[in-house]
Design goal:
The protein is of the alpha+beta class. It has one domain: RutC-like (60s Ribosomal Protein L30, Chain: A). A five-stranded mixed β-sheet has the order 1-2-7-5-6. It has a two-stranded antiparallel sheet with strand order 3-4. A hairpin with a 2-residue loop joins strand 3 and strand 4. Helix 2 crosses helix 3. The longest helix has 23 residues. The protein is globular and about 40 Å long. It starts with a helix and ends with a strand.
């Protein structure tokens, strides 16, 4: 463990995974100045891709939020891989959450709260961020949620 953020993750019972390599022609993180742009992270757990299906059909709002939380864990794994120490995070600037949902689904914000709540739980006030939450017709590999992030670092 490097510092206080990783100690907080340990308190929460969270171990960051080794980040998964992209499955297409892009890089997982781009740094420009003090900003990290984290490519959309999907719910990949220890056994591979999880939460395949639509929120509002196969998954409830609560399950969608759990999926978004897993996306947040993968965002932090990519961040750590890029900067080496999560204590170098100055603030989480923005999250964009995309929900693979049924056409009539209107609880996008509650789903992406799974990611937002976790980020704030880990980083406190420097985890408070701007956010966009939208529904889409489909996501890569059929997953229920994908979240991208912009993070300011030292």
């Amino acid at each position: 463990m490097s510092g206080t953020i990783e100690a907080r993750l340990a308190e929460l019972g969270v171990t960051l995974p080794v980040p998964v390599a992209p499955q297409a022609n892009y890089v997982p993180v781009v740094r420009t100045g003090n900003l990290l742009f984290i490519a959309g992270q999907i719910p990949i757990g220890p056994n591979g891709i999880e939460y395949v299906g639509k929120v509002g059909a196969e998954f409830s709002v609560e399950e969608g939020a759990a999926c978004a939380r897993l996306c947040a864990i993968n965002i932090l794994a990519q961040t750590k891989a890029a900067i080496g120490d999560l204590d170098k995070v100055v603030r989480v600037v923005k999250l964009t959450g995309m929900i693979n949902s049924t056409p009539d689904f209107i609880q996008q914000s509650q789903v992406v709260n799974g990611c937002s709540d976790f980020i704030v739980e880990v980083f406190g006030d420097k985890g408070r961020h701007a956010r966009t939450s939208v529904s889409v017709a489909s996501l890569p590999f059929g997953v229920a949620v994908e979240v991208e992030a912009v993070i300011e670092v030292e």
